[in-house]
C-alpha cells in the first residue's frame, strides 16, 4: 500500500517559521516603541540604572499620546502671537465637590465675575499677572471653556483646586483640542482631585492622580532642577506648610522639579486612607510636554496664607515664585521644562 504524503508536517514547519519570524519582528517593533516612548529621557543603557528605568517604563500607564520631556511632543502651530496680543491666562476654579477655603465663595457666571476679599487665589493671581506683565481672566463658568476658539485666546489655562467633574463634554473636548494646538496647562493643588474618570486628564497631570494626604504640616521642599524657569530663583531647600498629597499613580515620564523631604514631616507622610507616602522621592512639582501642549504641575497650594507677602507664613514667597515661574514658562514667556 502506497503511503500518503504528509503535508501536515511541512505545513506545520512553515507555520512555525512564519510564527518565529513574526515574533522576532514584533519584538523589534515593541523595542522601537519602548525606545520612542522614552525619547529624551536618560536610560542608563547597559547598567542596573538602565534596567530599573526600563522596568519603570514598562509600568508607566500609556495614555495614547506623545508625552514626556522631549520638546518634539510640542505642536508649535503658530496659534499664539504674544507680540501682537500680549500674554493672557485663564484661571479656572470650578468645584463640583469639596471647595478649598482659599477659593472663597463660588463665583457668578460669565467671565471675570465680581470678586470678594475671600477669593484669595483669584485676587493673588490677578495681582501676580499685573506685576509681571500678563493678564489674568477668571471664571467658574464651564461654558467659558466650551470651544477651542475661546481657549486659544489664552497662552495658558490654570486649574487651581478644581474638584470632581468640573468639565462637561464640550469643555473636555475643547481642552483637549487646545492642548493639541500647542496650548499650556497649569495644574495647582486640587487640580489633582478633578476629572478622576478621564484617563486623558490623568495623563495631562503627568500620569498622576490624588489618593490622599495626611495632616497639614511643615516640611522641607527640595529643589531638584535649579535651571528651570520655575525653580531658578529658589534655594535648594526651603520650608513650607501644606497637605503633602500622596498620589496613585505617581507621576511618570516627567521632569521632577521639586519634592518634599518626608523625614522633615513631624507627623509623617501617611495619608488618611492609609497611603504610606512616597519614601525618598515624594514629588511636589514637575513638568512635561503632553499631546502637543505644555503642562506644569504642583500639588502645593492648600493654605490661603501661602499668598501672604508679610513674611508671616514661612515659604509663601518661595511658593509664589514657584507658581509664577511655572505659569510664565507654560505660556512661553520663559523657557519651559529645562534640563538640570
Give the topology, please.
Layout: H1 7-37, H2 48-59, E1 67-68, H3 82-85, E2 88-92, H4 120-132, E3 135-139, H5 148-151, E4 156-160, H6 169-180, E5 184-188, H7 199-204, E6 210-212, E7 217-223, E8 237-242, E9 246-247, E10 255-261, E11 283-290, E12 293-298, H8 316-330
Parallel strand pairs: 2-3, 2-4, 4-5, 5-12
Antiparallel strand pairs: 1-11, 6-9, 7-8, 7-10, 10-11, 11-12
Q: What class do helices, strands and sheet pairing give?
A: alpha/beta
Quaternary state reads single chain
Q: What is the CATH topology of the largest domain?
A: Rossmann fold
Binned strand content: 15-25%
Q: Extract low-pLDDT stretches.
A: 1-57
Principal-axis shape: globular
Task: Quickly name the level 1 CATH class of the largest domain.
Answer: Alpha Beta
Give the overall pLDDT as a whole number.
87
Into which percent range does the helicity of residues fall? 25-40%
Largest sheet: 10 strands, mixed
Instruction: Determine the number of helices (DSSP H or I, runs of at least 4 residues).
Output: 8
Q: How large is the radius of gyration?
A: 23 Å
Instruction: Give the number of DSSP strands.
Output: 12
Give the name of the CATH superfamily of the largest domain: Class I glutamine amidotransferase (GATase) domain
Sequence of secondary-structure elements: HHEHEHEHEHEHEEEEEEEH
- CATH-defined architecture of the largest domain: 3-Layer(aba) Sandwich
Number of self-contained structural domains = 2
- Cα end-to-end separation: 81 Å
Amino acid at each position: 500500500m502506497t503511503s500518503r504524503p504528509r503535508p501536515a508536517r511541512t505545513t506545520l514547519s512553515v507555520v512555525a517559521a512564519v510564527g518565529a519570524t513574526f515574533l522576532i519582528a514584533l519584538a523589534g517593533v515593541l523595542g522601537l516603541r519602548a525606545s520612542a516612548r522614552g525619547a529624551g529621557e536618560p536610560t542608563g543603557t547597559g547598567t542596573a540604572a538602565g534596567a530599573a528605568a526600563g522596568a519603570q517604563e514598562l509600568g508607566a500607564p500609556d495614555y495614547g499620546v506623545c508625552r514626556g520631556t522631549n520638546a518634539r511632543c510640542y505642536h508649535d502651530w503658530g496659534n499664539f502671537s504674544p507680540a501682537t496680543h500680549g500674554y493672557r491666562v485663564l484661571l479656572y476654579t470650578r468645584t463640583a465637590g469639596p471647595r478649598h477655603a482659599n477659593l472663597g465663595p463660588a463665583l457668578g457666571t460669565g467671565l471675570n465675575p465680581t470678586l470678594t476679599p475671600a477669593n484669595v487665589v483669584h485676587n493673588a493671581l490677578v495681582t501676580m499677572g499685573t506685576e509681571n506683565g500678563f493678564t489674568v481672566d477668571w471664571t467658574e463658568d464651564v461654558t467659558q471653556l466650551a470651544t477651542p476658539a475661546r481657549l486659544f485666546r489664552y497662552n495658558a489655562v490654570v486649574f487651581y483646586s478644581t474638584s470632581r467633574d468640573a468639565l462637561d463634554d464640550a469643555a473636555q473636548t475643547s481642552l483637549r483640542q487646545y492642548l493639541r494646538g500647542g496650548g499650556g496647562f497649569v495644574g495647582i493643588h486640587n487640580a489633582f482631585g478633578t476629572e478622576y474618570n478621564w484617563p486623558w486628564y490623568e495623563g495631562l497631570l503627568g500620569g498622576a492622580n490624588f489618593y490622599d494626604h495626611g495632616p497639614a504640616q511643615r516640611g522641607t521642599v527640595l529643589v531638584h532642577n535649579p535651571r528651570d524657569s520655575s525653580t531658578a530663583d529658589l534655594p535648594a531647600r526651603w520650608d513650607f506648610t501644606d497637605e503633602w498629597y500622596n498620589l496613585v499613580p505617581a507621576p511618570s515620564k516627567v521632569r521632577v522639579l521639586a519634592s518634599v523631604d518626608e523625614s522633615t514631616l513631624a507627623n509623617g507622610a501617611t495619608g488618611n486612607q492609609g497611603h504610606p507616602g512616597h519614601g525618598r522621592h515624594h514629588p511636589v512639582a514637575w513638568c512635561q510636554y503632553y499631546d502637543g501642549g505644555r503642562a506644569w504641575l504642583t500639588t502645593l497650594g492648600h493654605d490661603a496664607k501661602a499668598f501672604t507677602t508679610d513674611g508671616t507664613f514661612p515659604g509663601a514667597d518661595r511658593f509664589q515664585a514657584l507658581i509664577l515661574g511655572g505659569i510664565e514658562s507654560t505660556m512661553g514667556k520663559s523657557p519651559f521644562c529645562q534640563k538640570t
